[in-house]
Amino acid sequence: MNKKVTKLVIIFAGILAIVGCVSMFILSPIGQKTGNIEMPDADGSTAEILSGITVEQKFQNITENITEVAVVFDRAYYLYDEANMIIELADGNNVLAKDSYSADNIPGSHRTYLKPNAPINGYVGKELTIRIYTDSTAGTGLSLMTTNKGGSYKFGDQKVNGSICFSVIGE
């Protein structure tokens, strides 16, 4: 082979190697970017969540493949027997994930996780809602930890400045 052809083959092989390395990085788990919404630091809490009260936190989702949503409850009140808390993740009225938790088993000031059966995807850039309520006839004895920084949430019919302490986990 002449020197020009050899030089072109070497340049072509180099370009292929670079493109291959870049492609492997982009497609590998190392190249995947996480878009988790991080848990804010708490500086307060809601009132007790009573029967008929729904707490709603709307947020702009940045997380693909949502695998968990975490909220932090506070145990500042007397616990009633057989009280359950319901946590939902919704797109408007479309419930994407929902679970019920016995109030007796929810630790105060620790994360309680809503884990969908399969990762939830296709909602990046959409406004989603976290809803928390009780299905018991009495109060639950639980409230939610909050921060007064940024946004607002609904507690029953009231709009409250700040945010409940929550995070969205996924890739």
Order of helices and strands: HEEEEEEEEEE
Q: Can you tell me the overall shape?
A: elongated
What is the C-alpha radius of gyration, as a whole number of Å? 23 Å
Report the sheet-strand fraction. 35-45%
Number of helices: 1
Total strands: 10
Main β-sheet: number of strands, strand sense, barrel status? 10 strands, antiparallel
Mean pLDDT, as a whole number? 83
Helix/sheet category: mainly beta
Name its key features:
single chain; 171 residues; mainly beta; ten-stranded antiparallel beta sheet; 1 helix; 10 strands; 42% strand; elongated
Describe this structure in words.
The chain is mainly β. 15% of the residues lie in helices and 42% in strands. The chain has one helix and ten strands. It has one helix at residues 3-27, and strands spanning 44-45, 54-60, 66-74, 84-91, 94-102, 111-114, 127-134, 143-155, 158-164, 166-170. Strands 1, 2, 3, 4, 5, 6, 7, 8, 9 and 10 form a ten-stranded antiparallel beta sheet that branches. Strand 4 and strand 5 form a beta hairpin. The radius of gyration is 23 Å and the shape is elongated. The termini are far apart. Mean pLDDT is 83; it is low at 25-34.
